[in-house]
Write a structure and sequence with these properties.
mainly alpha; 11 helices; globular
Length: 296
């Protein structure tokens, strides 16, 4: 039987070939981008999985992707090749310099800068501004440098110890405070770096940014929400130290460590989250009241 053969017009073949040649350079340099930033991405994933101080990144990054997908592409987007190239060049230089200096934070932040450069290159500045919240969450998912965490941890330890000791004295528990060591009859409570509240502070700041970006509309209320998040985290952590000492003194010394102590920390983190949610809801109601008054 004779076989039929479909012959595509030469214009169609030329059009497909031209589209391939147009997208091939973009695909090549996107692959190069992924390979170039593979090391900081791998180190960041390792810290998210193994480092308790960075575990909130496992939640923030998927939420950032979902928010970017929900926002979508703005109709007024316009690619900015020159600015995008400049941002990518700056991120590349920062990546090389941080690798030579063995500085992990700037190496990881160069990856965030490169991501912003890609967005500007393809979709423009307006799209990057529309995705400010996902980009902010991605930046917050990068653990703070060791120099900053070490400088903040000790003052937070002392503050939590002072607040816990003051509350214990208020409840008529004999207390002797020496730095970050709280001595009560028969026991010593050592407020370690893990109990300084720094871990919950970074996570609560990220949640404050997320709540402010989703629920609130005005920059001033978003800033106020973040400002209130910090004392809430410090107060709740001081209350945790007090609660630990109270339970150890009046109930059972074994409640000062182990699974129950860890569960207590998680429950108080939920309480902190609820307080921040109440503040965010109050700020949203105030925004609505002000908007109605202006409209009237």
């Amino acid at each position: 039987m004779p076989q039929s053969r479909v012959v595509l017009p030469s214009t169609t073949l030329e059009g497909e070939a031209s589209r391939v040649w147009v997208w091939l350079p973009h695909a090549a340099w996107l692959v190069a981008f992924a390979v170039f930033f593979a090391k900081p991405a791998q180190l960041l994933l390792r810290d998210w999985w193994n480092n308790p101080e960075a575990g909130h990144g496992l939640l923030l990054f998927p939420v950032a992707l979902w928010l970017a997908w929900r926002t979508g592409l703005v109709p007024t987007r316009a690619a900015n090749r020159w600015l995008g190239t400049a941002l990518l060049l700056g991120a590349t230089l920062l990546r090389i310099a941080s690798d030579l200096a063995a500085e992990l934070y700037t190496m990881r932040m160069s990856m965030v800068g490169g991501l912003i450069g890609v967005i500007v290159f393809y979709y423009g500045v307006r799209q990057a501004l529309a995705w400010w919240l996902p980009l902010m969450l991605v930046a917050l998912s990068v653990p703070f440098p060791e120099l900053i965490t070490s400088a903040l941890a000790l003052p937070l330890q002392f503050k939590a110890s002072q607040m816990g000791a003051a509350l214990l004295e208020w409840r008529r528990v004999p207390v002797q405070l020496a730095g970050n060591i709280i001595s009560i009859p028969g026991q010593q409570l050592f407020v370690t770096e893990a109990c300084s509240g720094l871990r919950s502070l970074t996570a609560l700041l990220s949640l404050g940014v997320l709540m402010g970006g989703i629920w609130l509309k005005q920059p001033i209320t978003r800033v106020l929400l973040l400002a209130i998040t910090i004392p809430i985290a410090i107060l709740i952590n001081g209350f945790r130290v007090f609660l630990t000492g109270f339970l150890v003194y009046y109930v059972d010394p074994s409640l000062g460590d182990g699974f129950l102590h860890l569960t207590e920390g998680w429950l108080l983190f939920v309480v902190s989250f609820a307080f921040i949610g109440m503040v965010a809801y109050t700020a949203r109601v105030m925004e609505s009241i002000v908007a109605r008054r202006r409209a009237a």
